[in-house]
Amino acid sequence: MEAYTGFATVYDRYMDNVPYDTWATNIKTLFEKYNMPMEIVCDLGCGTGQMTRRLKAMGYDMIGIDVSYDMLMEAQTSEDSDGILYLCQDMREFELYGTVGAVVSLCDSINYLRDTDELLQVCKLVNNYLDPKGLFIFDVKTEHYYRELGCKTIAENRDEGSFIWENEYDPETGDNSYYLTIYEENEDGTFDRYEEEHLQHAFTQEEIIDAIKSSGLELLEVCDVNTMGEPSSDSDRLYFVAREITK
């Protein structure tokens, strides 16, 4: 089952608890902390463009890249997407027309990479397309997050439909699979059913830091997304901030 196909049309409806505004403010804070000018920003794994549009509203020229055509179609139909260049590409082999001031990859897009080789590959590509001293900022769900999630089933009923989320985490491999079943009610009372399987991976901090440094980037900071402070053993999501230093 291919991810983010039928689910794309209802993604934002069921993800309405995600603190996009806070996360966008966090990114702007990190940009300002490391003197990122108002230049072009590339959003890797932009999905429906929730973060892309918020950063555009803050004054940045935005490029959104996602492997899912369906998610990009949802992004492009948003009324506040004017001026954003959306590209349907795989982050593991993305191409830009030139360099950019910053690359961001948010909402656990990096966790969809399957192993450290793919992580290193993405970091090298990012380094190639960054302006001198450009920034790479991304978040990841941590091992702690996936361990706490474990093997659970989450279900929710809403007026317009319902979903079932079955989760399986393997602590030995770091792989996390979840299976989505979504029922959307039609006007005639019938239901459309969507099924998707997603695979994410829990990288260790050491693996991520090694990929950043091995790609030629300089690691500037690792911080907890919720506190913007030092990571702890129970941090669910982390920011990694790196800078281009080779040009």
TrEMBL record:
GO MF assignments: methyltransferase activity
Record GO biological process: methylation
Chain ranges of the Methyltransferase domain: 41-134
InterPro entries: Methyltransf_25 (IPR041698), SAM-dependent_MTases_sf (IPR029063)
CDD domains registered for this protein in UniProt: AdoMet_MTases
Keywords carried by this UniProt record: Methyltransferase, Transferase
UniProt keyword Methyltransferase present: yes
Keyword Methyltransferase appears in the UniProt entry: yes
Pfam families the record matches: Methyltransf_25 (PF13649)
Residues spanning the signal sequence: none
Record-linked PANTHER family: TRANS-ACONITATE 2-METHYLTRANSFERASE, TRANS-ACONITATE 2-METHYLTRANSFERASE-RELATED
Name of the featured protein: Class I SAM-dependent methyltransferase
Organism (species): Pseudobutyrivibrio ruminis
Taxonomic classification: Bacteria, Bacillati, Bacillota, Clostridia, Lachnospirales
